[in-house]
Design brief:
Blueprint lengths: L6 H11 L3 H24 L4 H17 L15 H9 L4 H9 L11 H21 L11 H9 L9 H10 L4 H14 L1 H4 L2
Helix pairs in contact: 1-3, 2-3, 2-6, 2-9, 3-5, 3-6, 4-5, 5-6, 6-8, 6-9, 7-9
């Protein structure tokens, strides 16, 4: 990452393009979940220290930026293409742009790299985990458990806008069980609960 292309700059762009607090929190949540898969992949590759942190920061940036244009350009014709065009014009790394395109299953870009698969896998699940937290009396992600999430996934009336098939496909793309995927993202969100307002 460069001084102009880092997580702080990505978050600033998300906030510049997005007024809705819930959409901002969605971006922050997806970023933390995706970043956690970046850290996991960095460890698998034997990266350590700054090298591992920089590797994972790319994942976090993709999460922060994946819906940056959604509020202004929600149509399938424009999202995420408007945001990607802006980012390309401003020199953001192509691997981030490709991941953003791949998270939209109608873009024509399939999630092939680990980063692309991680972003796709975390998008719907992070929203679902937020919904699970918000129905708790405390509205806290700390009270959410994997078994409860799995049960709510089967309840089609709960958070009905969430694409359950994308959650299942995401776990499959990462070669994980649904329970492992839920647990991984849940832990990432719990570790950053204050930042996420959960």
């Amino acid at each position: 990452m460069t001084p102009n292309h880092n997580a702080a700059q990505a978050e600033a762009l998300l906030r510049e393009w997005t007024a809705s607090e819930s959409l901002i929190k969605h971006g922050l949540s997806v970023a933390r979940c995706t970043e956690s898969y970046g850290l996991r992949e960095a460890a698998r590759l034997g990266l350590q220290g700054d090298e591992a942190a920089n590797f994972a920061e790319v994942y976090r940036c993709a999460g922060l930026l994946h819906d940056m244009d959604y509020e202004r350009h929600p149509s399938l014709d424009e999202h995420p293409f408007v945001g990607v065009a802006y980012l390309r014009e401003h020199g953001w790394p192509n691997e981030i742009l490709q991941a953003i395109l791949a998270h939209a299953d109608y873009s024509g870009v399939t999630p092939d790299t680990h980063l692309e698969r991680a972003l796709f896998a975390c998008d719907e699940l992070s929203g679902f985990l937020t919904a699970c937290a918000l129905v708790k009396p405390s509205r806290s992600i700390a009270e959410v458990e994997v078994a409860g999430v799995r049960k709510k996934l089967k309840d089609k009336a709960f958070a009905r806008a969430v694409k359950r098939d994308d959650i299942l496909r995401g776990a499959d793309l990462l070669n994980l069980s649904v329970e492992e995927h839920i647990g991984h993202c849940l832990l990432a969100m719990q570790q950053h609960a204050a930042e996420l307002g959960l």
